[in-house]
Amino acid sequence: MIIKNGTVFRDDFTFQKGDLSISGGRFSSEAVASDADILDADGYYVIPGLTDLHFHGNSGADFIDGNYEGLLKIARFMAQNGVTSFSPASLTLPEEILNKAFMNARRLRDEKPANASWIRGITMEGPFFNAAKKGAQNADYLKLPEYDFFKRLDDASDRMIRIACVAPELEGALEFISKVQKECTVSMAHTTANYDQATAGIDAGARHVTHLFNAMPPLHHRDPGVIGAAADHPEVKAELISDGIHIHPSVVRAAFKLFGPDRIVLVSDSMAACGMPNGEYVLGGQKVVVKDRKATLADGTIAGSATHLYDCMRLAISFGIKPEHAVQAATYNPAAVIRAEDDLGSITSGKWANFVICRSDWSLDSVYIAGRKVMS
To answer: Do residue 233 and residue 319 come from a single domain?
Structure first.
C-alpha cells in the first residue's frame, strides 16, 4: 500500500509533504502496490495512531468491570476514534476484582480481535495512594505500597503492567519504586508529596507523573511540590488531561512551556460515559453524574472525563499548542512511557503501520491498524 501526497508526521516530529509505503502491516522504505492500493492523501494530514495510557472506559463500559465483551467494546470505540493502542487504568478496589480485569486484558492482547485498538499494557492506578488526594478513588481499599500485591497482579496479566502508580511520601514507597522501576514505569500519583519527597521518589526511579495538576498540591512559589520536582528532572514525563475541564487552556499552554513537547503525555482519563449521553454512570462502584462532558461524584469531585484522546489532542491544538507538539504528546511520548516505542508511536520504517488520516481542520477521516483500514 502507498499513501501519496499526504502531509506526513515524520519521526523527527515535523510535518513533511510526501509519500508513505506500507508492506506486511508495517511501514516500509519501499513497497510495491497495485492501483487499488494507492491512496491520494493530498490535503490531508497523516499521523501515527494515538496511544492512550490513562483512561478507564467508554461506550458505557469500564475496564475494571471485568467483563471481556465490555473491554472489546472499549477497544473498538478507541479504534474508531484514532486511538490504535492503549493501556487501560485500574482503580483502588479489592485484589480479586483487579485480578479478573487484568486477566481480561491478557485475553484481549492474545486474541487481538479485528477492528479493535491494541492493548499494550495496563496502568495500575491505585491502591497505593494518599487518602488526602484520593480524588474519585475508593478510600476503603487504599493500601501502603506492597511489592507482592503488584507482583501477583502482574503475574495474573502475564506481566502486562506498564505503569505502576504510587504516592512517594507513603511508608515503604521508595523501596517499592526502587523494585518496580526495573519492571515497568513508576508514576507519582494521588499524592501530597512536597518537593523533597517527590525528588526522593525520582531518585528511587519514578519517571512519570499521573494527570499533572490533578490530585496533587498546586505549584506554589515557596512549595513547588511534585510539579516543581518533576519539572526539574528532564527524565520525568507528565500526563495532561487536555479536555478543557480538568485543566484551564492557559495551564495546558504553561505545562507545554514548562516541560517541553518531549515530556508531555496527553491522556484522556475517560470513563464509561465517554461516547454516551448525559446521565448517571458508575466508576469503581461509585455513582458518577455526567453533564456536558463533565463527570463528577456526588460531592462534586471530578471523576474522570467523557472526552476521548483524539478530541483531547484536537482541543490542545485549539488551545494554541503547535500541532506537531500535540501529535507527539499523543503518539510517540505515551508509547515511550509504556516502553513500546520500538514498534509504535511514529511513522518509521519497520514499525507497525498504525496511523490516522486527518482532514485539514483535524477532524478524523480514517484509521488504519497494521495497514488495514478500521471498519465500523
So the answer is: yes
93 with 235, same domain: the answer is: yes
pTM assigned to the model:
0.95
Q: How far apart are CA 160 and CA 19, in angstroms?
A: 35
Note the pLDDT of residue 37. 85
User: Does residue 157 have a pLDDT over 90?
Assistant: yes
Question: What is the tens place of the pLDDT at every residue in 10-24?
Answer: 999 999 999 999 999
Q: What is the pLDDT of residue 35?
A: 57
Do the domain assignments include residue 357? no
In a domain, 103, yes or no: yes
**215, 72: one domain:** yes
Between 234 and 37, residue with greater pLDDT: 234
Q: Evaluate whether residue 369 is within a structural domain.
A: yes
Q: What is the mean pLDDT of the chain?
A: 94
The residues, any chain, with a CB within 8 Å of residue 9's CB and separated by 6 or more, are: 15, 45, 46, 47, 48, 324, 327, 331, 346, 347
One domain, residues 337 and 206: yes
